[in-house]
Amino acid sequence: xxxxxxxxxxxxxxxxxxxxxxxxxxxxxxxxxxxxxxxxxxxxxxxxxxxxxxxxxxxxxxxxxxxxxxxxxxxxxxxxxxxxxxxxxxxxxxxxxxxxxxxxxxxxxxxxxxxxxxxxxxxxxxxxxxxxxxxxxxxxxxxxxxxxxxxxxxxxxxxxxxxxxxxxxxxxxxxxxxxxxxxxxxxxxxxxxxxxxxxxxxxxxxxxxxxxxxxxxxxxxxxxxxxxxxxxxxxxxxxxxxxxxxxxxxxxxxxxxxxxxxxxxxxxxxxxxxxxxxxxxxxxxxxxxxxxxxxxxxxxxxxxxxxxxxxxxxxxxxxxxxxxxxxxxxxxxxxxxxxxxxxxxxxxxxxxxxxxxxxxxxxxxxxxxxxxxxxxxxxxxxxxxxxxxxxxxxxxxxxxxxxxxxxxxxxxxxxxxxxxxxxxxxxxxxxxxxxxxxxxxxxxxxxxxxxxxxxxxxxxxxxxxxxxxxxxxxxxxxxxxxxxxxxxxxxxxxxxxxxxxxxxxxxxxxxx
Length: 512
Hints:
Layout: H1 8-17, E1 24-29, E2 33-39, H2 41-62, E3 75-80, H3 82-89, E4 96-99, E5 106-110, H4 113-117, H5 126-142, H6 149-160, E6 162-164, E7 170-172, H7 180-183, H8 191-195, H9 197-200, H10 206-222, H11 229-238, H12 243-251, H13 254-266, E8 273-275, E9 285-288, H14 291-304, H15 309-324, H16 330-342, H17 346-359, H18 364-380, H19 386-402, H20 407-418, H21 426-438, H22 443-455, H23 459-470, H24 481-490, H25 494-509
Parallel strand pairs: 2-3, 3-5
Antiparallel strand pairs: 1-2, 1-9, 4-5, 6-7, 7-8
Helix pairs in contact: 3-14, 5-6, 6-10, 11-12, 14-15, 14-16, 15-16, 16-17, 16-18, 17-18, 18-19, 19-20, 20-21, 21-22, 22-23, 22-25, 23-24, 24-25
């Protein structure tokens, strides 16, 4: 197939400057996704169906069986009009992002179907952005471990450029043309810098790094002369070798592979892969968001990923006003309560949570917030206030009864002992282990469980939990605390590792 054509600037311009008129808000649920978007009902249903088909195609391609356990923790995708996205994100130059908080993994990104229809396969569709971010989640949850930065991004870029066939099949592995200008622009990123940036320096050109990562992934995945080398490279990293050593062993001479990649980029690319349709169509359930949910959603989304302290009250006031307009909407009350809590408006948060529970006594998000409010004073002012911790613990038990698979309930119940300086009962530890199974992508759970295991004398378990954090692609470059703790564990300095990990755990858990 042909190589690169259209460039990233054209695609971004189309996405940013086209703001289609929107209509109603919908929530669409499938086994692996909760899609929240505004627009047309048919389009929302079709989008959710494509997401589910994409998950099925990845499972076929990479040999990953479906895990019904994870159906209780679907990925929430907020597909937003460009104007609303930039209001919520406050992140110039970013068109979508993935995060894995306790409440559940989520992707927030631009959705611009009209602009997408004017673009070609391999251009920067808003759909490709969503699929790129979901590929990160797929990697983290289905085969967590140590992966080099280039492969994390190359994997996501390789998967994201797809064509959905009318017969239910998916063609996967089209060129990421929006990286073409960086790849063909004359700059160079030799293989040694790509696979071992810690030794040779991280590149400043993100487009070039992502583009070269996509190119190497595409070449190793689809060209028969390099068959098996990518698997050998990744296996060597999992066995403990550095990326540089693993790459030399698996790929051979770097200069030779660099020349092959340059020729591949300028010549004919290998044809993409066709993944046949699943045996049964995905199950899709759609509902219209309530008026209260629609009104609270912008403030809630904005606050969920952090707002500077001086601006939080304004968003809380917006959410509280919206909730007052809909006093009989339990979900709107709970959402507004969360916004008020994040703005340190604890009395308002409590009143809203109480109203949510009057309307829906099994509202797990309101129950969790009541627990957090009950322990707020205990953790900030009087750590030995056992009554405050006990009160919070009861709310977390009730939240667990309302949702037996709630990762946040397991995590905070464990913390109601551990962070109060109490002996943690076996049941609370088992709950935290269950949380790590349901949310392998969550840093807070991983760090708390690693600390618990290290205190129990199980350094191997602690080490395995820290490895994904040490190799996270967007971690700080000059302060890899998780890697330092792994080194202490390997060196037998268990007490030093416990001290360092305890400090990391306090930082990771943030506000109770």
